[in-house]
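cron nightly-structures :: item 1 of 1
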Amino acid sequence: MKNTYTPLICLVWLLLCSLQAYSQKYEAEQAALSGGAAKIACPGCSGGGAVAQGEGNLTFTVTLPAAGFYNISIRAASPAGDKINTFGIGGNTLNFSLKKDAAYSTLQLVSAQKLAAGQHQVKITKSWGWINIDYIAFEAVEDTHRFDLNQTLVAPNPTREATALYNFLLDNYGDKIISGAMTLNSFDESDWLKENTGKEPALLGIDFMHSGRNYTWYNDETPIHDAKTWYGRNGIPALMWHWRDPSRQTEEFYTQNQSKPEGTAFDVSKVSDKSSAEYKAMLADIDYIAGMLKKLQDEHVPVIWRPLHEAAGGWFWWGAKGPEPLKALWQLLYDRLVNHHGLRNLIWVWTREPNDDAWYPGDAYVDIVGRDIYREGDHGSQTLEFGEMNSRYGGKKMLTLSEVGSIPDVDDLIKDGAAWSWFMPWYGGYTRDSKHNSLDLWKKLFAHEYVLTLDEMPELRTYKRQDTAAGPSEPTGLWDNGSEKPAFAAYPTVVEADLTISSERRMETVAIYNAQGQQVKAQKVSGTKASVSFEGLSSGIYFVKTNLNGAAVRVVKK
């Protein structure tokens, strides 16, 4: 009798081999060890052993059967305290941290890292050292699972222009990178690039650093004029704020310390004391900048808005007192600009620093996450940074190289699948000096079809979404906002318990949807005003619809 099970057994065997190849552990005790790293017994570890790194390093030879995207994780323990060390592959490096814990746990280092088939040298090198490592693991994932991007802006009812710009960013994410440059004086670096390469960057960095300080040599309207001019050419204005000492005791934004005694000692922790002079000074500055941004909104100019950058670094006064005051200040800034002054033209960018989870203001206050990287002469794609951040934010936030010293080489960006939305080198020598960025590299980038320059930009005011985004089964206002204003008002936009809705017309029903478009609450109403309880709903973003026509209203449950 013919054995009909043999083909099935072979098929199952091949499938198991394939699964093993695409989800593979590499034991630390089988790595090449140097500098004092040593094997140790570990009965609870996967191979019965582990490696005590000490002051040493580990080198793994990883063989991948197929090119693709891989999640990379490490299983380790840190019994001697909080530690930071470095993971490296293919010339790219990433610092990772472990909290003090003698128990082994798994940390995902990067998600969806694009890697070629074949052998790769993977290194764990000492920064602080002194962790115990069980293994590293590579798990194949589909490219289509890399991102689950937020389809709308965090501020409720954004302007048409802000929505159009955000849609443009969404459409190009992973398909193109937007070129940028920071300016010190109006168009200085964009003009220099035009003169020396024949092209200009699509994004222009602009700073409120000198505004509101009563400098006789400076026109406070300069950032507004520059942003309006650039947007009029279909460029993207990216505004930031080196916020000088609100108390006016100094003109510093760097905090006072031993290495910088002339810095400001301004105490941001007073943000929680509304009666304090510090709170009132911060509020006055915020209101002044709000007036500047309002002029742009009145001119229908959207803004990439990146305030309070590099907070966790601690070198600026807004980060000098730790994460809680910073988060309180971010939320005050957001509430004052969005809810008090009614600014709806802003795309909010948080600038990540390593190990800043405690500092993050929250998904409800951030549209895009940036990373400022200064590594002289490093033109790599920063792919491990990208993968780590994409993992950290669940693929929900677009990521950007919000500041760089050296720009990435386009070949590496494509090879590594590092889908940064834009890059922006700092002004002066960072843009012009060959030790940071050569003219040949600028020309190569500007000539490449993957890189968007100013002359390639569409009409941003009227830009329509090109990619098809799968909408929810019920309307939420994400895909049916044909009119700029909804047919009703909902307040407060940050809800603690109850939401009030009102309209000039009679309402019959109210429905609440979560950010995924799933209906979580429905209520019959009768009249032009109603109250809806948010008790029992978790914190996050929600959309409110009534039976009336018009877009949904976006609110945040605190």
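cron nightly-structures :: done
The domain at 489-557 is CATH 2.60.40.10 (Immunoglobulin-like).
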